Amino acid sequence: MYKPVKFITEVPYLESSTFYLFSKSLKILLPIEIDNNDVQSSTTPTIYNSIKRIIEGIGAKVLHIKIYHHYENTFYTYLTIKNDKEVFEINISFKDGIEIAKEINVPIYVKSRILEDHGIKITKDLIMKALKN
Question: What is the mean pLDDT of each run of 10 residues along the chain (133 residues)?
Answer without folding.
Answer: 94 91 95 75 76 92 96 95 94 94 94 96 90 81
